[in-house]
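Sample intake sheet
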Amino acid sequence: MAGGAEAPPVSSLSPLRLVAAAAVLAATFAAPAFFAEPTGEGRAIGFSVLLGAVFGIVLQRSRFCFLCHWRDFQDRRDPRGVLAILTALAVGLLVYQVVISAWVPVVRPGALPPNAHIGPVSPALALAAAVFGIGMALSGSCLSAHLYRIGEGSLASPFALLGALAGFGLGFATWNPLYLALISEGRVLWLPHLVGYGGALVGALVVLAILAAVVIKLGRSPAGRAAAPLSLGSVARQALLERWPAALGGAAVGVLSGLYFLRVAPLGVTAELGSLARTAGAGAGLLPETLHGLDALRGCATVVKTALLSPNGAFVAALVAGSFAAALAAGQFRPRRPSGAEIVRALGGGVLMGWGAMIGLGCTVGVLLSGIHAGAVSGWVFLVFVTAGAAATLALRRRFGF
């Protein structure tokens, strides 16, 4: 099975590769000066480029991938990846708590923190999350991991993104009946409304601690290697060539999520994909004239694009560039022609992920990560059902060999 958690073989430090990687990063960081206006939106784009590139580096170096980490645990009982996800959730919860409690010092009925991804809880959310999980398991990665694998030269991941665009189109086509039947009746549940800031934070951390204890109990950690003597060369090798510790990657993801929320918006990678699909569908006359309630809900918002650049689009492009730079430096940019079966799985899985992300108002980053960080019950619901969908599909793939 294709996946993003297995690191490519470790190479050796190469000055030429390091110079090439530095040039990619320099061009990425300089791009907003040429393409973004000196306005509030332009500053948001500039910060999105910075955080997106760092996010791409973190994902590539730590192999952070929701599907791949879960698969490592399900297939090999390796707990490190799942613990990295739990670490990302815990660290992000702490950062979000500081930000949200400063913005909304007093919890009032009906009031929600600005822009936070706190969506309605309904059977449609559970269905969307499960379908997204099935799509992840078929395609081999979640959408964020497909993006960083493009930076590594993956030629299958673009097919997953094409499938996701088509899936968003199907999501728009089926939105109205699902909204009227299920989503409109869903409740927007924010945990601080129920138990206050302290209760929501402590409760979430306790749940994460229990999950971590279960994972450690059931897991079988692989034997560690002897640590190399500390030197400038060993530090450079660890940072630039070898896979970063999973927990470090998880902690970095949590911090970046909080910083991006503070400066721009909740972290997410599907808003730009969805907006491209919505714009294309609207231009071709394929979308319903009215998408009931969609633009009033919180999540990875999709809009008909009127400008070339958006903060989310800049973030996603910089993510790929950051991953490309990290892969170049490590000698892990290695394009490989995918088989026909890999292309079919990537396309099919991408369609399912796109539909699930559209109906669920986001993906494993936008709903699961950013939602749980914000105290949204919708994030926890997504976590349960995306895991169930992925686990069942991985088991079927292992059983029947597809």
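Comment: The first helix runs from residue 15 to 35. Residues 15-221+232-400 form one domain.
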